[in-house]
Amino acid sequence: MNSKAYYILRHKYFYFPAFKDTETLKIEMADSDFKRQTEEIEAMRAIYPKEWRVEERIKRSFSLRFYFLTLYIRLPLEYPSVAPPTYTLSAPELKPKEKGELAMKLDQIYLDNLGEPLLFLWAEAVREFVDKKRQQLSSGEAPSTSGGSGSDSDGANDKSRQFNVVHGDSITDRKSTFQGHGALVKSVQDVQAIVAQLKKNRKISSAKHNVVAYRFKGSGAVIMQDYDDDGESQAGKRLLHMLQAMKVDGAVVVVTRWYGGIQLGQDRFKHYNGAARNVLKDLGFA
Fold it and tell me: For residue 173, which of 276, 270, 280, 253 has the smallest C-alpha distance?
């Protein structure tokens, strides 16, 4: 053993000669990850020529679109050897519970394949989920959900629970008013319940737009995140980008816009982000 060193990484064993220092090992692993990522990206492009899309090449950000559902993926430098990809599920047509079930399936695939490329496995899981959903919709069948009556009762409890929601100061520009609302969350059910709680307020529910974005850490340390534009194109996606930039973990933001009849152009996004940032600070996120 004095002439060899063994390193255990995510339940995978790698052998390196003992004379190699830590920095050398890191460089070799980084080179290996880069090569494996490149090969996997080329494979995905070949297998899914219509569905696969490059979002931001420098940030190694990609997306897969299957009909009504888009899976946004970002590959960290340490993937696949150490770190998992981060992902966002965008599917406004799906209920939060359905989206949560798919997210749990993706998380489990990661846990079952630690240290291995998994984009194809994720893609096939999403494709099968979408195909099943489309069959249910075309046949008029009610979507099946896992967990039985226990899950239903849990959902009911979440909806009846009162969350501590922070309300920010209003921002008014050319007769349009923006107000941010935020709360701490641990699940998609929390997000759903908070949005429902806010919409019990007639003034909020009657607003032109209630844009939602959330981000929290799910099982297996995989980030759960999504957004809803609520008719304001790109607004939710921009809010989510801000949550990512601030490294928010465990919060939902809802920005309400009461439209004043005058189009604001790009300025509206500044107000959405400003209103959300105010409540995030109140929630303890710098």
Answer: 270
* Residue 104: Cβ-neighbour burial (10 angstroms; 0-12, 13-18, 19+): middle
Q: How far apart are CA 242 and CA 248, in angstroms?
A: 9
Angle subtended at Cα 268 by Cα 185 and Cα 240, rounded to the nearest 5 degrees? 30
Residue with the bigger pLDDT between 154 and 166: it is: 166
Structure-token match 């339940």, residue found: 11
- For the cut 50, the answer to whether the pLDDT of residue 253 exceeds it is yes
DSSP 8-class letter at 220: G
Please state, in angstroms and rounded to a whole number, the distance separating the CA atoms of residues 225 and 70. 13
For helices 148-160 and 188-198, the axis angle rounded to 10 degrees is: 40
In this prediction, residue 286 carries a pLDDT of 66
* Closest to 228 measured CA to CA, from 179, 195, 206, 266: 195
Which residue has 């429902």 as its token pair?
196
End-to-end CA distance of the chain: 48
Report residue 267 as tokens: 């300025």
Rounded Cα distance between 107 and 232, Å, is: 30
Supply the pTM of this predicted model. Answer: 0.52
